[in-house]
Design goal:
The protein is an alpha+beta fold. The chain folds into two domains: about 5-85 and about 125-330, BirA Bifunctional Protein, domain 2, CATH 3.30.930; about 355-450, Anticodon-binding domain (Rossmann fold, 3-Layer(aba) Sandwich), CATH 3.40.50.800. It is built from 13 helices and 24 strands. The strands form seven sheets. The chain has a seven-stranded mixed beta sheet. Helix 2 packs across helix 9 (about 320-330). The protein is globular and about 80 Å long.
Length: about 450
């Protein structure tokens, strides 16, 4: 049985150390969460899966890690400073503030039901900063609200350092910050979140082909790398395109309360490089861009064969890493009835995504002979460099199995008294609970097969 509500996931995250409420001992802070011992591992594994697909499995995409604090002018010319806002309304009766476009009924307060609400006003989503001793409180920098713009302004830097012919891409994973009016859905919408975005630069006459190519590639990644069934995913085209977009669609996952966005694929045409380039008048820019008198670099591409100099189009893939983790956990969450009438909760994660790859469990607590063998097996597995390996020494085999089921550990290795006689251990598989005896010497190979299988 899958999770009935997102609260099932929230409870598991708190109980097993995936996600905690940020600043919890001081009452928390809306839209802020801390990732615990298993949450950081799952997030890292999702990042690694994305990075492997975008960088290590291709020869046409380069990596980048740009600063989170950036010059105000960057966000002026990207259009964020003047237009990155949500419609805010306030209830005059209870004081609640809400995004009008997310209200159940735009004429009534979601909190108390009163119809006495203010007219909507634009609410700036960027977090402004006053940097330096001479700033005197004036906003002269921003925490970035996305990673994409910091990629565009590095287009020439990357191209000069690692020359490529079109098409080629730049990918980065990093934090972004938005002053959300009403964070919601646990880690689905937060004020501090993580994005994995790739900007693919193409010739203007090839944009539609690569837009379709990346739609297919990204959907395949969700099913192949994360193990999400195809029937739980769908494409949803944008009904209303953003000012920069020629085409756009979302990959949506079916959460307990319905389908919602986990990744976007966008044809941004030449808006971004055109907005930030020097000498805009020298180029035929199709998108409607703000006149830029501050940029110091031409963000153009010179074709080495024809000598043509032009502003490339951009195909963007933009995934929320936190949302990906939430979707992965929800998809893996399984409650099972057991033959003995009891039940168990198990996270049936892809083995490569699991926070703990294997657990070594001595059957009895603090028995030196068993503990020594278990420690040696643990060290052998650590040398495989496949991720986190845990050794349990509580002596309660049933509780240890249940705990590792709940955090998604693919395999447990139990060292018992028979091990002392014949150097075999019990290999217990998470999904089927199958148990089999194997020689200690065969444990590393068996674990590798499970993780890579």
């Amino acid at each position: 049985m899958p999770a009935k509500t997102i609260n099932d996931i929230v409870a598991l995250c708190k109980r097993r150390g995936f996600i905690f409420t940020g600043s919890e001992i001081y009452g928390g802070l809306g839209g802020a969460y801390d990732y615990g011992p298993y949450g950081v591992e799952l997030m890292r594994n999702i990042r690694d899966a994305w990075w492997n697909a975008m960088i290590y499995s291709r020869n046409d995409v380069e990596g980048l890690d740009a600063a989170q604090i950036s010059n105000r002018l960057m966000w002026k010319y990207s259009g964020h400073e003047g237009g990155f806002s949500d419609p805010l309304v306030e209830c005059k009766k209870c004081g609640a503030r809400m995004r009008q476009d997310k209200m159940a009924d735009p004429t009534k307060c979601d909190n108390c039901g009163s119809a006495d609400i203010t007219e909507p006003r634009a609410y700036q989503l960027m977090m402004g900063l006053s940097i330096g001793a001479m700033a005197d409180g004036a906003v002269n920098a921003y925490l970035r609200p996305e990673t994409a713009t910091t990629t565009y302004v590095n287009f020439k830097n990357v191209l000069d350092a690692r020359p490529h012919k079109l098409p080629f891409g730049i990918a980065q994973i990093g934090k972004a910050f938005r002053n959300e009016i009403s964070p919601r859905g646990f880690v689905f919408r937060m004020r501090e979140f993580e994005q994995a975005e790739m900007q693919y630069f193409v010739r203007p006459d090839t944009d539609e082909k690569y837009f379709e190519m990346w739609k297919a590639a990204r959907m395949a990644w969700w099913t192949d790398a994360l193990g999400i069934p195809a029937e739980k995913l769908r494409f949803t085209p944008h009904e209303k395109l953003a000012h920069y977009a020629k085409a756009a669609c979302d990959i949506e996952y079916e959460f307990p309360d319905g389908f919602d966005e986990v990744e976007g694929v966008h044809n941004r045409q030449d808006f971004d490089l055109g907005s930030h380039t020097k000498a805009q008048s020298e180029f035929k820019i199709n998108a409607n861009v703000m006149e830029n008198k501050d940029s110091t670099v031409k963000l153009s591409y010179s074709d080495p064969q024809t000598g043509e100099n032009f502003i490339p189009y951009v195909i963007e893939t933009a995934m929320g890493v936190n949302r990906a983790m939430l979707a992965v956990m929800h998809n893996a969450y399984t409650e099972e009835e057991l033959p003995d009438g009891k039940s168990r909760l198990v996270l049936k994660l892809r083995p490569k995504l699991a926070p703990v790859k294997a657990a070594v469990i001595p059957l009895a607590r603090n028995v030196p002979e068993l503990l020594d063998i278990a420690t040696n097996i643990e060290n052998d597995l650590r040398r495989l460099a496949i991720g986190r390996i845990e050794l349990e020494n509580s002596g309660n085999i049933g509780k240890n199995y249940r705990r590792h089921d709940e955090i998604g550990t693919p395999v447990c290795i139990t060292v018992d008294h028979q091990t002392l006689e014949d150097s075999t251990v019990t290999l217990r598989l998470r999904d089927t609970m199958e148990q089999r005896r194997i020689n200690i010497a065969d444990v590393p190979a068996a674990v590798l097969e499970i993780i890579n299988g």
